Amino acid sequence: MNLDRPRVDSKEIQARMDFNEVLTNFNAMSKPFYKSNWFLGTTGLASLGLIIGGTIAFQDPANEQADLSVLNTDAPPDLHVPDNSIISMNPELNDTSDELAKKTLTFTEYQHTNSSQNNSTIYEENSTLKVNYEEEQGPQEESVSTSPVTEDGVVEIAEEVVEEKTEANTGIANLSPRISGKINGGITREELFDNKGITTEGDVKVIHFELHLIDGLGGKVFEEESNQLNEDMKTALDRVLVGETIYFENIHGEAKSGEVVRLNPLRYILLN
Amino acid sequence: MPVNPIYHHTEDKLMKELQRVKYAKEDPRGFEPLYNKYYEQIFRYIYQRMDDKEMAYDVTSQVFLKALNNIHKYEYRGVPFASWLYRIAKSELYQSFRDKKARRTVNVESMNLFEMIDEMEEDRSDENRQVLLSVIRDLSEEDVQMVELRFFEKRSFREIGEILDITENNAKVKSHRVVKKMKKLFKEIDYEK
Questions:
Q1: For labelling, which of B7, B86, B87, B184 has a CA lying 20 to 30 Å from the CA of B70?
Q2: Do residues B46 and B61 touch, judged by C-beta distance below 8 A?
Q3: Residue B50 shares a structural domain with residue B114
Q4: Does B81 share its domain with B121?
Q5: Which is higher by pLDDT, A96 or B153?
């Protein structure tokens, strides 16, 4: 304990003040820029961006297309999936429904599934087109039976189907409609508006289709009696935003024999 | 009891000071006006509690360096910037005692002692002055701190509260308790004699 210690003079205290020394020490103690938060944050984000960018840039385009196909395997909102029967647009054929039923019965014994084509397979057999949806099939139907059905005629048809089975397998995708060679996934406006329209690789010519555009207020349907997009459709498509889905439904094709058949619907996501 | 006039600011002065703190946050050189303003009172606060003058200068420099390093953490609470500096000073001071760089001393002026004797309603005799010094020696560090702030440095309860990080009322209560304790000790020592 000090009693009456001499008071330090203010001038002496003022003389000892040295802000530059404090500032020098402060600068010496400050973190170097490469240890500062802003530098670490910026470089971290840049590195992350480079990694993601590099991954996207070097991604195999084939895989990308495959991914899109996988992403779009679900059915469009109002897609009507027909049962395992012959779909015929020709009224004359409707009259012989009993006969067709027999053919269908035989045909199910030789069904084939093709998952890459929207889980559906199209066969051509004796000038009658059949659409077989895998979704509709039970596991028992998948077994191949060689035993004839009661009537002779049906047995004969079965034999013909066996003979044409190989041919049918090779032509599975030929009857799938497509635009610019695409059956689903992403599509550009240029590909949509090309002059080829909706085509098939087989001998079926598209004679009717509907374009369904769905917006927030509901949907709009455009019909066309050819395989080409008409002006109304093009105008409507111009207004569709990137990333939205467009549907082509009720696609009717005409085979060489003159028979009109319904083809698989199409669904695309607009890319530009 | 007179109070420390440097500490008490008007609202306008507090706002101007806050503006300076903002400059200092943006640029360390902006800290210079605050350094110039508060250097002397911080030095005196430190030197009041230690023997070594050079060490007091060193600790004062450390206080301002620490303040500059942490200025971005400073939050305005409606009190002068000095209260924040005093808290840093207190922390640095006790750190230097722990590190045994400096020795804790209590510096008393006779004038202040007599004022305290008056407070205890005793005579201003040399004998009583000696008794009072004995009483102060027997106090705890916390109580000595209160005696220094209130009776030797003449700080207001509000300022004491801000330095010790307690409320003004709490500072009042603690101060009265110390005086009461000192009176009791004073009488005990007086009886022994």
A1: B7
A2: no
A3: no
A4: no
A5: B153
- Among the listed residues A48, A79, A31, the one whose alpha carbon sits nearest the alpha carbon of residue A247: A79
pLDDT at B35: 92
Q: What residues of A are in contact with residue B58 (Cβ under 8 Å)?
A: none
Domain C-terminal end among B76, B98, B120: B98
pLDDT value at B184 more than 70: yes
B22 Cα to chain A: minimum distance (Å): 17
Hey, what amino acid is at A266?
Answer: L
Determine, yes or no, domain membership for B25.
yes
**What distance in Å separates residue A39's CA from the closest CA in chain B?**
18
pLDDT digits (tens, 9 = 90+) for A27-71: 877 766 777 778 889 999 999 999 999 998 887 666 656 555 555
Is residue B137 one of the residues assigned to a domain? Answer: yes
What is the ipTM score, two decimals?
0.78
Which residue reads 């689903």 in tokens? A184
CB contact under 8 A, A21 and B61: yes
Domain identity same for B84 and B130: no
Q: Which domain holds residue B131?
A: 110-192
> Any residues with CB less than 8 A from the CB of B25 and at least 6 apart, and which?
B71, B72, B74
- Taking the whole predicted model, whether its pTM rises above 0.90 is answered as no
Q: What's the number of domains chain B is made of?
A: 2
Half-sphere exposure of B178 (CA within 13 A, CB side): 24
Half-sphere exposure of B109 (CA within 13 A, CB side): 11
B110·A8 Cβ contact <8 A? no
For residues A261 and A267, give the distance between their C-alpha atoms in angstroms, rounded to a whole number: 19
pLDDT digits (tens, 9 = 90+) for A121-167: 444 444 444 444 444 444 444 444 444 444 444 444 444 444 444 44
* pLDDT for residue A170: 45
Any B CB within 8 A of A39 CB:
no
CA distances from B132 to A77, A110, A158, B112 (A): 96, 116, 124, 11
pLDDT score, position B105: 87
Coil, helix or strand for A121? strand
